[in-house]
Amino acid sequence: PPSSMSAFRGLLCIPLRWQWGQNVDTSNAVVANCWSPSFFSRSPSHAVSVAVADTPGGPFTRFPYILHDEIAITSSHTNPSAMLAPDGSGRIFLTQRRATSATVPLFVGHWSSPAGPWTPLRASLLPTSAGSPSTFEEDPFLFSNARGEFHMLTHREVDRSLRSAGPVQGIPPPGVYLCGGGHIFSRNLTTWYYGENIYGHSPNGTAQCDIVFQRGHGTVPTKLTSRQRP
After folding, report:
1. In angstroms, rounded to a whole number, what is the distance separating the alpha carbons of residues 69 and 43?
2. Are 199 and 210 in contact (CB under 8 A)?
3. Quick check: 51 and 30 in contact, CB under 8 A?
4. Cis peptide before 59 (omega within 30 of 0)
5. Positive or negative, the Cα torsion across 177, 191, 142, 41?
6. Residues 6+ apart with CB under 8 A from 188
7. CB of 177 within 8 A of CB of 205?
8. CB–CB of 1/141 below 8 Å?
9. Residues 26-35, buried b or exposed e (16+ Cβ, 10 A)?
10. Fewer CB atoms inside 10 Å of the end CB: C or N, the chain?
């Protein structure tokens, strides 16, 4: 999983550290998903790149953009999350902001070729009793569990009708719906299911801004104005 975030040479990067297989003649490496602020001054407005270094301190070698409007399956090329396949194949699964699409943006590459090719893996997101893919989601965190199942945690905009018109504890919030956390899950990476809201110890949209702070021997319930990455 992402271990830190750093900025250098106009790039914002999220490094990922992996242990290579026993038969691979290389040391540990750091692979970073990066975007360049200067890139937003021209079309396309969002893109994902990769940079590689032997140590977190660099120096990094940056590769061309791997996801952008001309080659990817969505125009939301930002908020990348990558994971090494748990089967030892060396494959890397990469996802990014889904927005409101019923297609989960997934790509498959290999650690030995950071520049690609990154092949789109068309994956569908199905509605459930928990909600619909039409709800906006971004900032995914992709992982698998010991059973080989796949999960993503997201920043989810819950029902916009929950938007607060008044202040919360004296702070005018941008909207209760911005506090949401989401969960989607899959057994095979190609068929995903819409899961429950995950914040506030409740699936209810109105609980997504709730947080409890410990103070002395007691607790202080508070409402946030927004959240971002889970």
Report:
1. 9
2. yes
3. no
4. yes
5. negative
6. 150
7. yes
8. yes
9. eeebbbbbbb
10. N
* Tokens encoding 225: 């104005």
Q: What is the pLDDT of residues 38-61, one digit of tens each?
A: 433 445 567 888 888 889 898 998
Structure-token match 């070698």, residue found? 61
pTM of the predicted model, to two decimals? 0.72
- Give the per-residue SS3 of the chain: CCCCCEEECCEEEEEEEECCCCCCCCCCEEEEEEECHHHHHCCCCCCEEEEEECCCCCCCEECCCCECCCCCCCCCCCCCEEEECCCCCCEEEEECCCECCCEEEEEEEECCCCCCCCEEEEEEEECECCECCCCCEEEEEEEECCCCCEEEEEEECCCHHHCCCCCECCECCCCHHHHCEEEEEECCCCEEEECCCCCCCCCCHHHCCEEEEEECCEEEEEECCCCCCC
Note whether 145 and 219 are within 8 A (CB): no
Q: Which of 142, 134, 179 is nearest to 157 (CA)?
A: 179
Kindly compute the dihedral angle of the four CA atoms of residues 59, 9, 228, 186, in this order, to the nearest 10 degrees. Answer: -50
Written as six digits, the tokens of 94 are: 């990469």
- Report yes or no: 156 and 135 within 8 Å, Cβ to Cβ: yes
pLDDT, tens digit, for every residue of 115-169? 888 999 889 999 999 999 998 899 999 999 999 999 999 999 876 655 554 454 4
